[in-house]
Amino acid sequence: MDMTISPEAAGWFKKELNLQAGDYIRLFPRYSSGGGLHPGFSLGIATEPPARPAVETVQGGLVFYMEEQDLWYMEGYSLSIVYIAGEDDIEYVYQPLSVAGQAE
Predict the structure, then answer these.
(1) Which of 8, 42, 50, 67 is positioned for an S-S bond with 36, CB 3.0–4.6 A?
(2) Residue 26 belongs to a domain with what CATH number?
(3) pLDDT, tens digit (0-9, with 9 covering 90-100), for 66-99
(4) Which of 9, 15, 19, 3 is nearest to 84 (CA)?
């Protein structure tokens, strides 16, 4: 699983959640009436330090991560979080991984 966050998306998180460099963003599957990769689930966010991080990346001084027990949600996909300026919001972009483990 690969995870990338655009600099603009990191800036959005800082602004919306009043975060500073060194803060943590946990991404995790949660029950939802909307849809993400799996019906009935979407990605949730929490501002808490990791316990057992399996994937993490730093952007804009923020540490974005997913815990080991949450990786099932992203199995076979990479995740990019991008900023949509016209909506002043972020978007989760899921890309299927090829057999070799690279985004298609």
Answers:
(1) 42
(2) 2.60.300.12
(3) 999 999 999 999 999 999 999 999 999 999 997 5
(4) 9
